Structure formats: structure tokens, C-alpha cells
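Q: What does the assembly look like in three dimensions?
Context provided by user:
Components: two
Sequences:
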Amino acid sequence: MNAFFIIVIIFLLFNIALGLYRVWRGPTVADRLLTTQLFGTTGIAILIVLAGYLKELTLLNVAVTFNVLAVLLVICLVQVWKKKKGEAQ
Amino acid sequence: MSVLIDIILAILAIYLALQSLLAPRLSQSVFLFFAFGLALALAWIRLGAVDVAITEAAIAAGFLGALFLDALRDFSVSDTEKQENTKADQSLVSAKNTNSPWLPRLALGLGLGLFLLISLEAVWEIPSGGGLTELAEAMLPASGVEHPVTAVLLNYRAYDTWLEIGVILMGLLAIFAVGGRELYRKPVMAVQDPLLRQVILFFTPVLFLFGAFLLYVGKTGPGGAFQAAVLWGAIGILLHLGGWPVFAVIPRWLRQLLLTAGLGFFLLLGFLFIAGGNALFEYPPAYAGFLILIVETLAAISIAAALTAIFANLNQMKETPNETETTT
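A: Here is the predicted structure of the complete assembly.
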């Protein structure tokens, strides 16, 4: 069972590494932000699997912290864009 | 086998740290830095420091993210001019770099080298027997809390924590001094978009509840005032972005009270202990748990207020220079 957890975690870590390509490439800020959101979700998945692997349920608190704060970035970007458009007009 | 996870995490963290410094474009750096924060939080968990992981998650993903995105707007004036601007900036920077004298570089290099040597020396010999861990755990029953990290932060080394709250307040004062205070009162239009409105209204109680949970759970496990403060500060930032600048419309005395409550109560408590014949921050064991909870709550409120004010000030400070630029 432990080997399964480790394989899943490594697979998810590779997912993050692959997602870096989009951060590097991504033509607009929104693409990069979405990749960061993907990292956040993958990070939450890793945390949940780690919580099972290490038998430590407090890791779920870290996962929820990531989860509830992820929305802040999106709203911040949306509002920043709105103001930028207003200035351009 | 689990060493494989650690190796991948270490490589990822170092790679992300390097890339976020070296990336040619600002937005790349900013988003690579968020990814770095995630890798760092996972690394802290692998090291067994869940408290630090929560703080890293809250600050890197939440507060710093909002500040960086806001700063990013400042550097990208409009979508079309953006690329030319960054290119021009880059050539300017590189031209400056080639002309810069070698002396500052040498000084910086030497300083960093020295710092590296000192820090290497500090961690070279890991103290056998886990350093002060045993002592901290032995005194746990007298500290009033059940989690050693909280006991260290708010009982054994309460003085450090008190000064840390002061440092955040100091940062806010510096921003006020640079000239954010009048701009702060500027009226902001409330959000018209119903979806955004609902999202903000939905996440406000969620953030508040989870912050309160983290604050309370700090007594027995990972969590505590700073983590809760970031979550509560996120409420203020969300409301500010949604056009409800709660922190700007409340009366001035209330704002000052909110900002200084944590620092002030801590100080008052310390003086009362001295007056009672104890040392500064030497809690009487019978009331320690209760007092620590009050101190933590007030500290969290103060830090949350300070974080909100920092974001609100920096967010509005930039609007005036932009407007003057466009009018002239």
C-alpha cells in the first residue's frame, strides 16, 4: 500500500513539473494563473495522499488552507484586469 | 523508496527558486514563485514542520499572491505596450549592469559568501538528542497549551512573537509614511458582476470560520495566530477587491484599536506580570491556556487588519500616478 501512495505522489509531482511548461510559455497572465491554480489543486491532491501515507490528518488543514485561498488569486486577477481595461479606454 | 519523493521535491524547489529569479519576464517570475511556494510547503511537510507548511501555504498562496498580482498590474501598463516596455526595460537594465562598477558586485558576492559560510557553520553539527526539544516538551504541562510549537511561540519565546507583531505594524506605518493615508479614503465602486459578488460573499464566512478553526486548533496541533491572521486578512482583501473597503469606512479610532490591539494587549499583559512580581511574559500556569488564547485572538485580529490595510494602501496608491500619467 505504501508503494502505491509513493507512486501516486511521484506521478502528481511530475504533473507539476510538466505544468511548468505552461507557466514558462503561456502567452497571457491568465494562462499562467490557471496553471498556478492547477498546481494548487495538484498540491492539495499530494497533501491528501501524503496524509494517508504519513497517517497524519493535520495535513488536511494545509490542504484546506491552499483550497480556500486559491480563490483570492483569481479574484485579484479579475479585478486587476477590469481596472486595466478601464484605464486603456 | 520515499527518498525518491524527497529528491524530486528538492530538485523541484531549487529549480523553481532559480527560475523565479532568472526568468526573463516578470509574470513568469511571479507565477514560478507561487509554484515555488507550493514546493516549499510540501518540503516543510516532508521535514515534519506542518506549522510552517500552513504558514507558507497561507502567505505564499494568499497574501503574497494578491500583492504580486497587484504589483504586476503596475508593471504592465496596457496589453499592447507591455512587451515593448519590458524589452526596453530589459535593455536598460542590461546596459546599466554592464556599466556598473565591479566594487558593489564584489561586496555583494563577498557578503553572500560570508553569509553562506556562517549558515553552513550553524547547521554543520546537528545537536544530538534533538536540541531543546526535550526541554520544551518537559515544560509543556506548565505552558497551558498542548502543542510544543504554540508553547514555544506564545509562552517560552513570547517576546519574539510580540516583536513580530510589531514588525508587521511597522511595515504598515512605513507604507502610511510614504503617503497612502489620504488615498486610502478614496471611494471605490462596488462590484456589479453578480457572479463575483456571490463568490466574495460565499468565501467571506468560509475564510472566517476556517481562520477561527486554525486559531483554536493551535492549542493542540499545527495552526495558530499567524495562519489565522492571513485567512482573516484574506477576507479584508476580498472585500476590498469587491468594492467594500470595510477597513476604510470604519471610524478612525476603531481602525487604530484594531491595528494595535494585539501589540497593546501583549504589552499590557507583560507589564501586569512584572507588576505582579514575575518576569515579562511569565504566565501564571493556572491561567496560561486562557491568556494565550486571548493573546492569539487579538494578535490575529491585529495582523489581519494590518495585512488588509497594507494591501488596500498599495492597491490604491498606484492609481493616482497612473491617472496623472494619462492626463498629462
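Follow-up: The helical segments of chain A are 2-25, 29-54, 59-88.
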